[in-house]
Amino acid sequence: MREIIFDTETTGFDPLTGDRMVEIGCIEMVGRVMTGATFHCYFNPERAMPAAAEAVHGLSDTFLSDKALFASQADALLEFLGDAPLVAHNASFDFGFLNMELVRAGRAAVDMGRMVDTIAIARARHPGAKLSLDALCTRYGIDRSHRTRHGALLDAELLAQLYIELTGGRQIGLGFSDSASATAEIETSRTSLVRADRPFRAPRPHHPPAAELERHRAFVATIKDALWTEEERRALPATD
């Protein structure tokens, strides 16, 4: 099963108020193993970078001034994404910016049904725990010492490791489970395992008939000093 783990960096929090995507980093996984294939690109947002956003990811107006416009890279990005499920941390945020840029560039938005949110998976596994990427990396022992600032490709790499842990651990990538069981948890996070179209089957009777019970009692009676018979005798109320 091919999956894409991705992260974005932006000028702010809301694409509907003019914020733009300035970086995207994508990691390809097949069978829950990173293949080494990546897609990474910076974009000129055609607007000024707010100081608060620059403090998070370090991408300045000067750095982004000579970078490509998103529209010029949209087809290459879509080709890399293919039709694979797209995994992100707080995925609705990243999907919002990705789809805004795609529509702005005259392309179709990505189907939200492809969205896999690792925060939702983590919340189900660790109710009440901190769910930031940093906190979850600490919980699972994922080294993030080289992460001094947010970066889309670096964060996607960390998220890929976290995703493996959240969906069964590193043994998935070592072949200890088949592809069906390896994908069970993520499929559960997107849809119920109870199929609405499953045909109804009436329950089958499991009680033995009276003749079979009588044969069993007769057989048990032939066993001398049976332990269960002694236990039954001890359980009887004492009599004078």
Task: Give an overview in words.
The chain has 240 residues and is of the alpha/beta class. The protein has one domain: Ribonuclease H-like superfamily/Ribonuclease H (Nucleotidyltransferase, domain 5), CATH 3.30.420.10. It is 41% helix and 15% strand. The protein has eleven helices and five strands. The chain has a five-stranded mixed sheet, sandwiched between helices. Helix 5 runs parallel beside helix 7. The longest helix has 15 residues. The protein is elongated and about 95 Å long. About 10% of the residues have low confidence.
List the main descriptive attributes of the protein structure presented here.
240 residues; alpha/beta; Nucleotidyltransferase, domain 5; 11 helices
Question: What structural category arises from helix and sheet content?
Answer: alpha/beta
Radius of gyration over alpha carbons?
28 Å
CATH class: Alpha Beta
Catalogue the unreliable spans: 171-195
Strand count:
5
Q: How many domains make up the 3D coordinates?
A: 1
Arithmetic mean pLDDT: 84
What is the H level of CATH, i.e. the homologous superfamily?
Ribonuclease H-like superfamily/Ribonuclease H
H-E string: EEEHHHEHEHHHHHHH
Give a short account of the largest sheet.
5 strands, mixed
Shape: elongated
| CATH T-level topology | Nucleotidyltransferase, domain 5
